[in-house]
């Protein structure tokens, strides 16, 4: 992936609705170049820019990372995993396990029931579940709870639904859809983003040949791991960090241009003072990564 494309994706991770002019200024290129590159990235399916709704608003409180060992071809189990509404991420991986799944559910009882469904799928030999305590770093995870007294009406919900499909839909298009002025829609979308009711960012198509290599890492740490987490946040290529309960204390996702690049990032992680053990697995094929969610009724 060209350097400019990577730079634009990083900028969109911070502000998925940044204008072409804002992106051009930050990237040090012309507006026309930015518009052309983004059009190509989105048009070819290399990137989708979407909104993810705050899990508190959706009533989602139980998150888990599930590693699955299968008998025979893992591909035979994938369709059933992809069909699970609670599965936002499904990937075939190398290493001890054959597949990993991220689940999001309202409570631990429903989480347990969903893991039980996975255990019963044809071809599944065993599963290992990590419970997320919290997500430290993640493009689509909020950094704070929803504000007290927040009110969301039907128009907000319609805008949120539209942004889940296309996070960069223009204010004029959104205005035409909901029957308001573009300025009114701008104010509403700005408020939704500022209150982190929605977070808008890029989802990469990791199935393309041009996509970066990606790996998951499970880390055991000494003590509270604060220094390890701070160091992780500062490393280029670390996309996701979560504190977990289970066989690992932290789980992270890293990316790089090549297997060599992944090796270098993993070596950097192993050298951190608080890290006492690290396991890794390569994402061979990400078959599902979707954050759209049915929205509750208005009036919250």
What's the short story on this structure?
The chain is α+β, with helices and mostly antiparallel strands and 300 residues long.
Provide a descriptive summary of the structure in words:
This protein folds into two domains: 3-44, Orthogonal Bundle (Arc Repressor Mutant, subunit A); 57-140 and 206-289, Alpha-Beta Plaits. The protein is globular. It has helices spanning 3-14, 20-27, 31-43, 55-58, 78-82, 108-119, 154-165, 171-178, 182-194, 226-234, 259-270, and strands at residues 47-53, 62-70, 87-93, 99-105, 124-137, 198-204, 213-221, 238-245, 250-256, 275-289. Strand 3 and strand 4 (99-105) form a beta hairpin. It is of the alpha+beta class.
Rg, rounded, reads 20 Å
Sequence of strands across the biggest β-sheet: 2-4-3-10-7-9-8-5
**Tally of alpha and pi helices:** 11
Q: Please tell me the total number of domains.
A: 2
Reading the helices and strands in chain order gives HHHEHEHEEHEHHHEEHEEHE
Oligomerization: single chain
Shape: globular
Ends distance: 42 Å
Largest sheet descriptor? 8 strands, antiparallel, barrel
- Class of the largest domain, according to the CATH hierarchy? Alpha Beta
Low-pLDDT segments: none
Mean pLDDT value: 93
Structural class: alpha+beta
Beta fraction: 25-35%
Q: How much helicity do the residues have?
A: 25-40%
**CATH architecture field of the largest domain:** 2-Layer Sandwich
What's the number of extended β-strand segments?
Answer: 10
CATH topology annotation of the largest domain: Alpha-Beta Plaits
